[in-house]
């Protein structure tokens, strides 16, 4: 579904209020801060920092790099940078990109962006005073007229997955105070599938069950955010989840796949 943008990733599963000040939990948050999350411009405007040095968060989830898409409604050319004002129907956000030292290199890398073009911007969220903007590491024109719609759907899918667990659970049966659709699905794992893990501590067994319950477990691996979202519903802390993941990796029960944030069961 992504049209040149990022992956579903996301963001840290560990809410800042639950994250330990150091150790394995903090290390995993740092790794996740390099992930790319698709956002609407309204979501960019809703994201916030606890303080100027804190990670950006949106609805309790850490936001690393972001990818946005929108119509260019204004370009402000300055001595050291270009400032693009984007709109996507949900809000307005500025994207800033810095000039290269060589003008030819600048044109080759960034292209000739014009007002009224649709562009995709990937970068990091920044703030100057009360104004938020995206500090661009990549900008490109959108050639596909459907790309902006795909992006909106992708941003919505990621947000709902972070809130409710990955798709594939029992739809329509979740109510406030109950387990997520993701947790409901994990309970459907056959006992035979878990027999070889009965010697593991309860939290490690639950993580294995979560990994096996996901449709992507035998493809690209399951994102740590999906795992944490499920087991945190049962009162587990970020530190204990991190320790359990590390223990499972040390024992060879699980391994990382495409990056350090995606896990797969060793079978």
Automatic annotation (TrEMBL):
One of its GO terms (cellular component) is chromosome, telomeric region. The keyword DNA-binding applies. GO terms for molecular function: single-stranded DNA binding. Residues 66-136 form the OB domain. Residues 8-20 have a biased composition (Polar residues). It is found in: Nucleus. Residues 165-260 form the Replication protein A C-terminal domain. Keywords: DNA replication, DNA-binding, Nucleus. Pfam families: RPA_C (PF08784), tRNA_anti-codon (PF01336). GO terms for biological process: DNA replication; double-strand break repair via homologous recombination; nucleotide-excision repair. Residues 1-32 are annotated as: Disordered. PANTHER family: REPLICATION PROTEIN A-RELATED, REPLICATION PROTEIN A2. Belongs to the replication factor A protein 2 family. This is Replication protein A subunit RPA32.
